[in-house]
Write a structure and sequence with these properties.
The complex is a heterodimer of chains A (123) and B (199). Chain A is an all-alpha fold. Chain A is 55% helix and 0% strand. Classes of the chains: A mainly alpha (123), B mainly alpha (199). The interface between A and B is large, with 52 and 53 residues.
């Protein structure tokens, strides 16, 4: 929103970026380095998670916490490296929609687990 | 729009780039779908009734193999997209064929796992845990199966029509779909299988 020299206000009809945080980041690539690095990191994180479970390195509760954190790191890598999250044309409108869906999904999962921790009422 | 900005081929046609945004919005509905199934599984995980516990029916060997297969297919589909962007249509088709072959071996391993459970009498009628498990993992497996059919049709279209504007967009959205399924599997592997074996 800092640059208002070119146009007076967004019209929404062309490829102009209406929110600066949602500007596409695109770089032409000449060799799939990022894909190979991403693959190697995914393999490393998967095998780390597997080894932690197989060798009982942590208490069950601590292990599940670490596994979920590792899964989120790997999911973020997939989004940024493989799914080209910041690629697009004009404003990246898919990012706020995706954020809203994640908010709903994590809310459903989180509150379901939270309410079951009380185990009151039935059973 | 200043014309000196680099736009990837898939986004150069305005109509096709809108379709890519539309596909992202479809994926967000799938995020909510899998979120709901994960929460059902989390709630019913300990409700095993007279059936087996997670620890008793999960075999880590096949599951680790499935994970490595799906991770590798993630790399191959991204190389297919990379080849398409470099205008190597044949390489793009070759990587795509490898991708759906890996997907097919993933589904084969999963069906073997399910068939083994069912033959042992562990159907989804047996306990709330098994209902949640088969619904969650089966929904992901059916997504992968649909993705294989999609990839086969995409290979046919790429061979007959080449890297057209429409085919480039189809390949881009297929890659998005396939990577999304890999993300879901990462959570299945961690939250369902590995956590089920944590003791």
């Amino acid at each position: 929103m800092a640059d208002r020299s070119k146009t007076s206000s967004p019209t929404g009809h062309s490829d102009e970026v209406e929110i600066s945080a949602l500007t596409p980041h695109i770089a032409p690539i000449h060799f799939p380095t990022m894909q190979i690095v991403g693959y190697a990191m995914s393999l490393a994180l998967t095998l780390l998670a597997f080894a932690m479970t197989a060798h009982h390195w942590l208490s069950p509760r601590g292990l599940v916490t670490v596994l979920v954190i590792l899964a989120f790191i790997q999911a973020g890598m997939q989004l940024l490296i493989f799914m080209h999250l910041r690629e697009g044309r004009g404003t990246l409108w898919h990012i706020p929609v995706l954020g809203l869906a994640l908010f709903v999904a994590l809310g459903v999962v989180g509150f379901s687990i939270w309410i079951m921790l009380f185990k009151s009422g039935v059973s | 729009m200043s014309s000196n900005v680099f736009i990837p081929q898939e986004f150069q046609d305005p109509q096709e780039s809108i379709r890519i945004t539309g596909f992202w919005i479809f994926l967000t509905t799938d995020v909510v779908l899998f979120g709901s199934l994960f929460s059902v599984y989390a709630v019913f995980r300990s409700r095993v009734a007279l059936g087996p516990t997670p620890h008793q029916i999960f075999a880590m060997g096949p599951v680790l193999a499935e994970t490595l297969i799906l991770l590798t297919s993630t790399l191959t589909v991204s190389l297919s997209l990379y080849s398409a962007r470099s205008n190597h249509a044949r390489w793009s088709v070759a990587w795509l064929i490898i991708t759906f072959s890996l997907g097919a071996s993933f589904v084969t391993l999963e069906i073997r796992e399910f068939a083994g459970d069912i033959l042992a009498g562990h159907t989804w009628h047996q306990s709330a845990f098994l209902s949640g498990f088969f619904t969650l993992v089966g929904t992901h497996g059916s997504h992968v199966t649909f993705g294989i059919l999609w990839a086969v049709m995409l290979v046919i279209q790429l061979i007959t029509r080449g890297l057209t504007v429409i085919n480039r967009r189809k390949l881009y959205t297929f890659a998005l779909y396939w990577h999304f399924l890999d993300i879901v599997w990462i959570f299945l592997f961690s939250v369902v299988y590995l956590s089920g074996l944590a003791k």
